[in-house]
Amino acid sequence: MEFVIQTKGLTKIFFKNKLVKKEETRAVVNLDLQVANGEVFGFLGPNGAGKSTTIKMLLRLLFPTSGKAWLFGTPIEQPEARRKVGFLPENPYFYDYLTAAEFLFLNGRLYGMGGTELKNRVDELIEFVGLEEHRNSRLRKFSKGMLQRIGLAQALVNDPELVILDEPTSGLDPLGRKMVLDLILKLKEQGKTVFFSTHILPDAEVVCDSVGIIINGELRKSGKLSDLLGKTKGYQIEFTRITDQKILKRIERLSKSQIEVNEDVMSVEASEDELYNIVEIIRIGDGKLLRITPQKRTLEDVFIEEVKEA
Length: 310
Known about the structure:
The chain is α/β, with parallel strands linked by helices. Helices cover 34% and strands 31% of the residues.
């Protein structure tokens, strides 16, 4: 398998006193990470977990204390490694007196582009992020969501194969978040690899193929989202009302959960181990089984498990 991003033992320690090497913060510790070509990878963790520090090391905005990293198989120390990368930082700075089109032209010129090539690229990107009506509006008039979209457009000026986004949906309202997530899915359809950090777990669950969970600078779990969520955490059993209190107490004792009542329908949560026994007790109590629904794990379940173990 071809890896677009690969790290081995990547570590960043910030020192309070560099001369005596007095350690202050272990921001990232022995990070071993792999991101496959063409996937959307969510780098998840609470604030201060080491997400932005990792991204800055990959882009050589920070230098690792130890360890190695590669982009497209090229060591990150070599400028060539970053030629096919587009980047949107968590708090981008915009020249707010420029229009959307002028801002993208400026970024294109920084990449050495010009003439018809750059004009066509600006038109494509403004359409891609849905800002055609605002191409000649100054950025100072843009909302937070619009600024995030024009920021994403500037990250795509050089038509990168890898797009790195640091907290791209942070601070956006639900509509703005959906627009950014839709753009990430469009990038995937184009065959690009997207690596984005976030602490908003539902966002990652919507768009990601794979995720990595980092807590206190350590990678706690990494893998395909389908594998991490594949395990069923239990079942919801629905049945008609039972009046026998002894039967109901037996059900609650086995399930280790309280029976919920909604009009003439009762429901209870049960593990796989106790599923058959509870169904049998419902039958003995003259209840009619209505539905058994598997309760799938969510990314939040996985994340909380790792936080508790950290």
